[in-house]
Amino acid sequence: DAGSSVEEMEFSWDEYLEDTGATAAPHGSFKHVDTSLQNGFAPGMKLEVAVKSDQNTYWVATIITTCGQLLLLRYDGYGEDRKADFWCDIMTADLHPIGWCEQNKKILKVPEGIKDKIPDQEEFLQRVLKGACSAPANLLEGLHRGKNPLDLIAPGSRLELQNIRDSLEAWIVNVVENVGGRLKLRYEGLEDCDKFDQWIFYLDPFLHQVGWAAQHGYSLQPPLAIRSLKSEADWQEILKKVKEEEEESSVPTDLFKDKPVIGVHSFSEGMKLEAVDPMAPFVISPATVLKVYNENFFMIEIDDLRPERTSSQSYICHVNSAGIFPVQWSLKNGLHLSPPPGYPGQDFDWADYLKQCGAEAAPQSCFPSLTSDHGFKENMKLEAVNPVDPEEVCIATVTKLKDSYLWLQLEGSKKPVPDCIVSVESMNIFPVGWCETNGYQLRPPRKAIVNKQKKIAVVQPEKQILSSRTVHDGLKNQELNSSDSVVINGKYCCPKIYFNHRCFSGPYLNKGRIAELPQSVGPGNCVLVLKEVLTLLINAAYKPSRVLRELQLDEEAAWHGHGETLKAKYKGKSYRATVEVVRTADRVADFCRKTCIKLECCPNLFGPQMVLDKCSENCSVLTKTKYTHYYGKRKNKRIGRPPGGHSNLEVAMKKPNKRRKRRKHFFVHKKKRSSASVDNTPAGSPQGSGGEEEDDQDEVDEESLTEDSTSEHQDELLEESEVSEKKSLSSSPTQSELSHSLAQDRDKRKRKLRTFSFSDDENKPPSPKDIKMEVAEKLQLDSNPLEWSVADVVRFLKSTDCAPLARIFLDQEIDGQALLLLTLPTVQECMDLKLGPAIKLCHHIERVKLAFYQQFAN
Q1: To the nearest 10°, the Cα dihedral for 663, 667, 669, 672?
Q2: Per the record, which residues fall in region Disordered (predicted)?
């Protein structure tokens, strides 16, 4: 299941907006959502309310405002005086529509507080009730009392839906699910088949209450797509059954009073225009008015010049339909118009095309004026339906704005899709938090934020890669409607980008994590695919922030492409930077190669070519020291120690002057890294040092990145350990570090031993048998492990075959005392290590314990 890897993560819009530095689109911009939240009562409506001082009498009151099922009322006669306003609950208050008292022989009597203002009650009532709007009776009485009108569209309710693909005929649909007014509908007669289900907002102009077709002269016929599934007699039997049950499953007519009114159009058959197919709203294409039904509806078809085409993309529109534009609208707005499939050449020209077709352009007067007063801005966030899979509601970012149209980039969809073009009045877009409010699953971003109560403070890279792999396995099988063929084959379509994990990964990228990436990403929109590729590479780095800095856009753009904001997280800190990616397919290969060289890895590590057996660069012979010989020196001077040298020794010696972190009392509670942090690079592969030896430079250079949060500063310990590594013995901290005499050292050890205790049986001295077995591996220590600092522990580990685990010990600040307390269960639980690496690590810990007992415990 594509969503299984992210379902455990709890997505928070507040944290996400803070994390991305984005803002939410204003709630007032979603008019259809505002309408759906109305409870059926509106300010200015009048009703008859029991008088508090005399429960047997009633008086007319006006609704001042509403809040859910609460109404703020004012008795008529108080005018603008607010002192007597009162709240009442629709469910419990004695409220009735105008005329109820007369019908039920109840008394209308002026309340005591305004008797003096109303000398003639009858004349006053005639005046205030003339032309007044009464509160709906069905919302004040009976089963519907106090219910939100939207809740009356319950599962099992029936409606009529016009088929916009092939005709204006309507057919009965059953409501399967109602999510905040967004209805999952199933055609009547297909109770056990969900293949043709549709998601439509209840205010859609093609959705009506049962009986609408008959009233407006339309026939009830199942759509062509399902008509062959049953015989004509079966369909007529289904229709007969529906009419018999009409009363039980009908929906109140009042619900549709707020639907947009369809105006009169002035289109004629054969007119040309520009259009976006609502079923695949990714490109703007030339289109033709195929048929005019009446003054309200007409059918358009997306142009396709291929002689062998087997199907057409046509749909029914009205004058206010979204996604129809006059000829040249794209050109005037600097947008790409996709030539019709089969059009000769790539440079489309409307004048030549109209001449070639012998057609006329639909005049500007046929189209409604477009508004730019809508509240949306670029980079705003919202929630939007995935047009390829309407079950999905995704996080969306406004990437572009033109008049009253938005270009939305969807995050977290199972199959990545190009930017979608939607109207600002689309009923498939929703404000931030809409899904949560209505109990629907929002597709979280692939790098979701984990609930802060969890043990680990950042998402495990292993999980991130898993979800990305799932997404991109789906991309291989992506099937968009044929209207998207221009995107898939055009110059803006990126070919598949392969991760060739056998190639040399360089000093920054973790070879083990590279191997866990999906085999390929794409094809698809160049910007989207390359952004995803770079995001995966950043997450596969030893230090994601360092790779982000390497990729960061310089002041002068090298590619004159598209700037994308990418993020990296490292040691509790979040970084953002603008990275340039190319927009056209012809530059992708060169972009990938030069990016690889920038990251000091094999130029074929990722790119449009799959490396099968042997890399053309013969990168298997490369090591970090050999890299620059083949691909040139880097332009950024490295402060970290060059391979084989000790030039940063002085820098390392100055490090203790820095502010030191306060030591945590016990490492177990500080789980910041998972097993995914462990470098699983095979022996002989570059590992570890690439991302670690340059921390000094990183601390300076990463200031150029945008920093999102505070973090911890620990890298000096690792650097210190690396500088001293070559001069130390292979198994322990060096003798030269001992500054006390042997006698003083023994006294000190005795004092410390009095306060030192072991936590379980595994820490007791090994039996003579065990000692005998390990004689060949006997360890000789030059200093007491009880006095080892974190740097000493790291230095010791780096001298063993568990060197990749040194980073975990540094992150969790494990010093000598904590090291001696470690056991197999605590290593597995607190470091999230698998059994194999945990046993190997514990073997070395036991060697240290044994040496401690033999050398220092007496």
Answers
A1: 90
A2: 633-769
